[in-house]
Amino acid sequence: MSARNARPAHDDDVPSGELVRLQAPVGQGEAMARWIALARRGRLPHGFLVTGPRGSGKSTAMAWFAAALLCPSDLDTEAPCGVCRTCSQVANHSHADVHVLELARDQAEKKMWGKERSFYAITVDQVRRAQETLQRHAVLGRARVLCIEDADSLSTEAQNALLKTLEEPGQATFLLLEAVQPDRLLPTVHSRLQRLALLPLPEPMLRTHLQHRIPQHAARFDAAVRVGRGSLGACMLACTEQVVQVHDLVLELLREHDRLRPLAMARAVLAGHRERHEQLDAARTFLWLLRSEVAAARDALAVDAAGTYVGPPAEPWTTWIERTLEAERDLELQINPDQVLVACLVQFVR
Ligand SMILES: [Zn+2]
Fold first, then answer.
1. Does position 10 have pLDDT exceeding 70, yes or no?
2. Where are the strands (E) in 185-271, listed by range?
3. Within 13 Å and on the Cβ side, how many CA atoms surround 118?
4. pLDDT digit string (tens) for 146-161?
5. Residues 6+ apart with CB under 8 A from 248
6. DSSP type of residue 147
7. Which helix (H) or strand (E) holds 248?
């Protein structure tokens, strides 16, 4: 049986000629530097959890940790060298000692990896396969690493299965997990993990990096920084064409919410997306942008307020944020994206 889910990823994941370089996480300061230095000595705790909001650089951090565990450079004692063959393989998901467990992300992957992968949960079967692979797989280099992306999507059964590996990880074996909502992990799992929360980046740092990476989208930076809320990845995402389209709908909603037609708005958000996972993605993006814009509006109000603002009881922002969060939870419960959006948007009319 092939280890489809706990794949040692292969070179064919990345089209040849498009190798990416390993990137160091930005703006993460002392705490991360200390853990990375421990990883260089092979003394990272065997279960390690990186947390942070969407786009905050969790995947970048995970790759940096994996490279820190594996990079053979003796000259680089405090961080991985970032340029050797090992570091490059880690960055391109092609290192034989790094196994990745993740949600199905798109239709192509779903076909490639089999039907048992879900868009909603990492299943117990996926975890068991990963464990078999880990046991079978000899350590080729300095360590072997199991990366679990979206660990807050591990089913309860999957988490219970994972406990075995967390309790007896085996020689030079490290589990790196990342999650947006770590409180969805079982306390028994949580207690066996060391945790690093990524820091939000200050606005000037975000702008500097955006200017450096995507200068052609400078006109979008104000909006991107507003919804990105300290996460560089989220800011970059906010500059992509698809997200800009959804963002325009969000702004329209907030400008004219008293004239909002929930059904029409939900249709506009999902327009052009026929596959369920595409609809799910569009709905998630819409709710994320909506919540971020509402939060930014509320924050701006609080700042203006100094001394004068007393908080009228009719202030809608907090309620709206709660409604949006509820809708985001409903999406994860596999309720239809159009139903979730309509039910949420109805609350904005009034
Ligand atoms: Zn290296």
1. no
2. 194-197
3. 15
4. 999 999 989 999 999 9
5. none
6. E
7. helix 241-255
Residue with tokens 């080729």: 140
Which DSSP string corresponds to 90-117?
HHTT--TTEEEE----SHHHHHHH-TT-
Distance 119 CA to ligand 1 centre (A): 33
Please state, in angstroms and rounded to a whole number, the distance separating the CA atoms of residues 295 and 278. Answer: 26
Tell how far the Cα of 43 is from the centroid of ligand 1, in angstroms: 17
Say how far apart CA 3 and CA 108 lie, in whole Å. 18
Instruction: Give this prediction's pTM.
Output: 0.81
Q: What is the pLDDT of residues 193-210, one digit of tens each?
A: 999 999 999 999 999 999
How far away, in angstroms, is 133 Cα from ligand 1 center?
A: 24
Domain ranges in the chain are: 7-197, 240-346
For residue 157, how far is its CA from the centre of ligand 1 (angstroms)? Answer: 36
Q: Is the dihedral of CA 227, 276, 8, 178 positive or negative?
A: positive
Unique residue bearing structure tokens 């309860």:
156
Q: Cβ-count burial of 108 within 10 angstroms (0-12 exposed, 13-18 middle, 19+ buried)?
A: exposed
Tokens of residue 149, six digits: 């992306």
Distance from the alpha carbon of residue 318 to the mean position of ligand 1, in angstroms: 47
Instruction: Phi first, then psi: give them for residue 95, nearest 5 degrees.
Output: -85, 130
**What is the distance in A from the centroid of ligand 1 to the CA of 36?**
13
Distance from the alpha carbon of residue 84 to the mean position of ligand 1, in angstroms = 4
Dist. CA 115–CA 98, nearest whole Å: 23
Question: Taking a C-beta distance cutoff of 8 angstroms, is the pair 44, 174 a contact?
Answer: yes
75 CA distance to ligand 1 middle (Å) = 10
Task: Tell me if residue 144 falls in helix, strand or coil.
Answer: strand
For the domain covering 7-197, report its CATH number. Answer: 3.40.50.300
Q: What residue type is assigned to position 155 of the chain? A: S
> Tokens standing for 268?
């506009």
